[in-house]
Amino acid sequence: MMMPANYSVIAENEMTYVNGGASFIDAIGAVTAPIWTLDNVKTFNTNIVTLVGNTFLSKVVNQTIGVLFSGNTTWKAVGAIPKTLFTTNVANGTIEKNNIGDYVMNALGVAAAVYNLGVAPTKNKVKEDVLTFKTV
């Protein structure tokens, strides 16, 4: 069989040497592909959302339910809930100039906290603690 002068028969596993080798991403994929399955990726993503949501949970609860049940609730405070919940500077309720990235990440954190509240049961103090009664 006649082949062109620039053609040579090379095994497939030797092609990386001819093409310049694998990139960093290819190397990571080759190492992790046998280990990570679709279930691992799903678990990883769920855990990331949970970690971010846990970080923002107290902020969401304090600035929503905390405002409504504080005993000092005014219509002005209720109207300010969205403004204080989605801002990066809670003290004055503003988004710092040219800081849209923080605003977006803050909104994602709030969304992750709300997601956690929707998918995981919260601790029930009455159910999980032993109640004791004191006689007066």
From TrEMBL:
This is Uncharacterized protein. It comes from Faecalibacterium prausnitzii.
